[in-house]
Amino acid sequence: MAQRLLTSANRVSARFAFIFTLSLSCTYLCYNIIFYGGAVMTNQGYEGKRCPPSKNAGGKKLLGKLSDNNCASPDVSRSAGQRGSNEQSRPPASPGGHWADMSLRNMSVAQKYGNKKLPNALIVGVKKGGTRAVLEFIRIHPDVRALGTEPHFFDRNYDRGLDWYRELMPRTLDSQITLEKTPSYFVTREAPRRIASMSHETKLIVVVRNPVTRAISDYTQTLSKKPDIPTFEELAFKNRSLSLVDTSWNAIRIGMYILHLENWLQYFRPSQMHFVSGERLITDPAGEMGRVQDFLGLKRIITDKHFYFNRTKGFPCLKKPESSSQPRCLGKSKGRTHVQIDPEVIEQLQEFYRPFNIKFYETVGQDFKWE
Ligand SMILES: Nc1ncnc2c1ncn2[C@@H]1O[C@H](COP(=O)(O)OS(=O)(=O)O)[C@@H](OP(=O)(O)O)[C@H]1O
């Protein structure tokens, strides 16, 4: 009897031990399910905000804040879109990721500033004619965007291709004109053909000036860089007593405008070319710029009120140039004091240029009064 009692007590304690172990195991299992599962969710939330590893992390740094938003998962960006109104106006992150977001960003830059386009107008010459003044004056116009430097595409850089050239241009809206100036185009044999092959519709501006004054200006510039060159007279004549002019000297050759113009007229209609008087540009900048605006099909916005005559400089200056409230004159290299030339030499050169000038006036239908 006593043994039976002992055996049944053992069974009870064994069952108790089994149930206890089982409940312990269950508790452990439940604990794991609850807490381990929670840890996974926490990690998922964190991973969702992390950017995927990128090979060009350096480039991403440059993208700055934009990249912080762009690398978020679609869920994260959706909840971001439900935030304040400022954030709602941002472009949503696209499933295409980083590059798709970059192109979205470019799209909004394009919407605001337009695209880079090949120029539809060029200031092609002439060197020392007043090309910088025309460029700086016309770019005040809100419908003109101009490249500040001379790209020399159609003479020195043609091999780089049109895509290279386009990339240099400022962004323009469809309503805006893209403009650049390179004065050496006017005397570059291949330039008219090359420009016409870019577009037959390109508008061409040529700023011309008395060829004798232009030659002296050109020489003054060269002399400022190379003080050891021969005198103007020595360079200008093969034989001065015979009035034999050296037409191989660039400073002389550039001023034979009609010869260069004939090359342009093989590729462009006269109506596509506009000639600015370099002299009137100084005495009446608003009048000359009025005609430039008409030629470019622009509303006459640049008027007298944009200019004042700076007595110290001896030239008209801009009262209020683009993106500044300060009045501004052109730099020191524009409007230099010319070297003194013997008046007889000037007279000889005027004689030399006369027939070229007359033919030039007839061809363009304008008398520039250089005599
Ligand atoms: N507003 C104003 N301010 C200063 N200079 C003016 C202006 N308008 C025309 N000009 C004349 O422009 C001449 C320089 O011509 P370019 O700009 O065509 O020169 S360049 O070919 O780009 O080097 C420059 O020639 P130089 O006087 O011989 O220096 C000026 O006479």
Automatic annotation (TrEMBL):
Q: What is its EC number?
A: 2.8.2.-
Q: Which Pfam families match?
A: Sulfotransfer_1
Localization: Endomembrane system; Golgi apparatus membrane
**Keyword terms of this UniProt record:** Disulfide bond, Glycoprotein, Golgi apparatus, Membrane, Signal-anchor, Transferase, Transmembrane, Transmembrane helix
Q: Where is the composition biased (Polar residues)?
A: 79-91
Please name every pair of cysteines joined by a disulfide bond in this record: C317-C329
Region described as Disordered: 67-101
Please name the InterPro entries in this protein's record.
NST/OST (IPR037359), P-loop_NTPase (IPR027417), Sulfotransferase_dom (IPR000863)
Q: Which GO terms describe its cellular component?
A: Golgi membrane
Residue positions annotated to bind 3'-phosphoadenylyl sulfate are: K128, G129, G130, T131, R132, R209, S217, K334, G335, R336, T337, H338
Major place of residence: membrane
This protein is called Sulfotransferase
Source organism = Kryptolebias marmoratus
